[in-house]
Specification:
Number of strands: 12
CATH superfamily of the largest domain: Response regulator
Helix content: 40-55%
Order of helices and strands: EHEHEHEHEHEEEEHEHHEE
Radius of gyration: 19 Å
CATH class of the largest domain: Alpha Beta
Strand order of the largest sheet: 2-1-3-4-5
Number of domains: 2
CATH architecture of the largest domain: 3-Layer(aba) Sandwich
């Protein structure tokens, strides 16, 4: 059976070799490029299963690489995990909104990185659900068609927006969603959004979830995700 191929885009050779060594031990096949232009050509040729993309690259930077890959139908479905430095919150948000699947901040532990890679690959290989399909996760059941949320079989009243936000997050456990992505998905791209509007909705959802409020995790400076 062919091994899963990971493509690393990173300008520091020592980081590439560290990643190559550890990912090979985890039975991944690894390729790499040290700048964005070389990476784009190699990715189009090799079609890897997942890309680890450093944002700080010479020439074509990581965000532009992400933009180009996600606009190309041939490469749009390849998952991207961004490798970021501390203090790059605005770049993280931009990357997620361009279509990146996750990010991990440097310095990172190898076990954490491998876990993130496997989680993203699992999500990629999970068939997309109908947008009105019933979701059952942990002890919560969400039925958008009936506008119904049950916790251990007991109904929990939620507003339309609260239910749609909960449904969006629970339908993609582990995915980091920016505030803008949340509102675009729930209300449409023409809806005027502020960070505060989303935060208020999240407060309301957590209050109604009670002891299960921590299922919704805050990703500081970026947005929210549902606990996997």
């Amino acid at each position: 059976m062919a091994r899963t191929k990971i493509f690393i885009v990173e300008d520091e050779e020592d980081i590439i070799e560290l990643l190559r060594h550890n990912l090979t031990r985890e039975h991944f096949e690894v390729s790499a490029a040290t700048d964005g232009e070389k990476a784009l050509k190699a990715i189009a040729r090799e079609m890897p299963s997942l890309i680890l993309l450093d944002l700080m690259l010479p020439g074509v930077d990581g965000l532009e690489v992400c933009r180009i890959l996600k606009k190309d139908a041939k490469t749009a479905d390849i998952p991207i995990i961004m490798l970021t430095a501390k203090g790059e919150e605005s770049d993280i948000i931009t990357g997620l909104e361009l279509g990146a699947d996750d990010y991990i901040a440097k310095p990172f532990g190898m076990k954490v990185l491998v876990a993130r890679i496997r989680a993203v690959l699992r999500r990629k290989n999970t068939p997309s659900a109908d947008k009105n399909a019933v979701i059952r996760i942990h002890d919560i059941m969400i039925n958008p068609g009936r506008h119904e949320v049950l916790i251990k079989g007991r109904p929990v009243e939620m507003t339309f927006s609260e239910l749609r936000i909960l449904y969006l997050l629970a339908g993609r456990p582990g995915w980091v969603m920016t505030r803008e992505q949340i509102v675009d998905a729930v209300r449409g791209e023409d809806y005027a959004v502020t960070d505060r509007a989303v935060d208020v909705q999240i407060v309301g959802i957590r209050k109604k979830l009670g002891p299960r409020a921590d299922y919704i995790e805050t990703v500081r400076g970026v947005g929210y995700r549902f606990k996997e």
